[in-house]
What we know:
The protein is α/β, with parallel strands linked by helices. Helix content is 41%, strand content 18%.
Amino acid sequence: MFELKKGALYVVATPIGNLGDLSTRARDVLAGADLICAEDTRHTRQMLNALGLDRPLLALHEHNESERVAQVLAQLQSGKTLALVSDAGTPLISDPGYRLVRELRAAGITVSPIPGPCAAIAALSVAGLASDRFCFEGFPPHKASARRERLNALAGETRTLVFYESSHRIEECLSDMRAAFGDEREAVLAREITKLFETVLDGTLASIADRVAADANQRKGEFVIIVSGAPEDEDAALREGRRLYAKLSEAMKPSQAAKLAAEISGAPRKALYGGE
Length: 276
């Protein structure tokens, strides 16, 4: 067991499913911390029990993070060693904690990472899509209108796109992605990574959406959606036309949306909408 630094906060990555993925160093930090800040203390308590550990916990989540800063800072300034964990994976990656870390660093506190599992990186590593340049978008907005607006804005992004999504919205999200990016855009859907029912589906957005719609099991669990970026050599007018068509089709008939989008962007109408 390595020696923990007094008055330091350790940001500890924890398993996203398989407890065996916890590193020896992460276990040592959790075992030696005077206090563990946890997104959900009940969830973290279960993990600690499985590891045979019993440490004090402090709830720190999106609803109370700002209020906890002063309390956590006081503990660290008194010489205590703290750990920060999320429900699963690497803290701050689409999880609470960045405000706390920012304030602690500004106050001169040592904040040290204990690296480990991250669902986005794990999924990207097995996706078979370009990973030299990628854009992590986290969870799309819950509201349909805001989600479509966000996806439409990303239609021309050439980097690989990485999203998280829940079982409650996976079908709707895939449908909106088809509208924004096109049915033929390559994608990968990784579900329940490192868990018993881990599955990785690849193909076009249309084929993946069809497989999810046809199998209720593929609508359960936690999801990472990876979408290939727009082709570097794709005509700019066509990209803009598709973006406009996706947006306009929310408020008018597809044929009308395609006609207007084509007029504004200069893209061929038939490339935006195949109907008459």
